[in-house]
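lol so apparently i was supposed to do this last week
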Amino acid sequence: MTAQLNPCGDVAVLVPAAGAGVRLGPGRPKALRLLAGEPLLVHAVRRLAEAPSVHSIVVAAPVAEVAAVGELLAPIAPVTVVPGGAERQASVAAALAAVPAGPGIVLVHDAARALTPPALVESVAAAVRAGHDAVIPVLPVVDTIKEVDADEKVLGTVDRAALRAVQTPQGFRRAVLAAAHAAAADALTDDAGLVEKLGVPVHCVPGSEHALKITRPFDLALAEHLLATGR
Ligand code: C5P
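anyway here it is w/ cytidine-5'-monophosphate bound
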């Protein structure tokens, strides 16, 4: 059954899903790889559509898969599908350009974080609503982190107490994200990085282990296990 999005919601979610997923090994574009029999993108969009504040969802798909992705997602939720770009940042910009009038909050969420709970979508949106221009979900770093040179020689140990691993969805006041993308010069791996370059403060909220990024075969196996055990 197609989930109805909330016409009174104040949140649009952009889903860059146009990456090749080389680190998962050869095969289909990453967002279309199967997890428990369904593409990662289907899992991701289903959870976004369950978040009560979500008014609209725009997916940036691989250029050759735009029509197929539209058909795939139609039974899940009403989504707009646009062709993605060569870099993640270009895919986000393409999706941002397709957001309808209305929502004042824009979230950017990687399709690869397919098991992200709707509650995390809501907590990021709530922090933007509460007055933060830019919000990122984060987890503490558990490993010791070393800085190394090109020869793998250790240069030093970084104080992990001051480090955070950053997830998505990242949330923004719509005008702030639009300004950040308009001003973007270099391609960055996250949207908060663009906003930081504008000098806008970025606020952290607690992330979720379930928002893990499915990048390598091990991540896929872990995600299968989480789904199978209902966690
Ligand atoms: O490559 P990486 O794992 O950082 O990609 C993060 C997200 O960005 C993925 O969901 C991927 O599909 C998306 N992406 C995109 N367009 C690209 C490259 C990556 O939408 N050109």
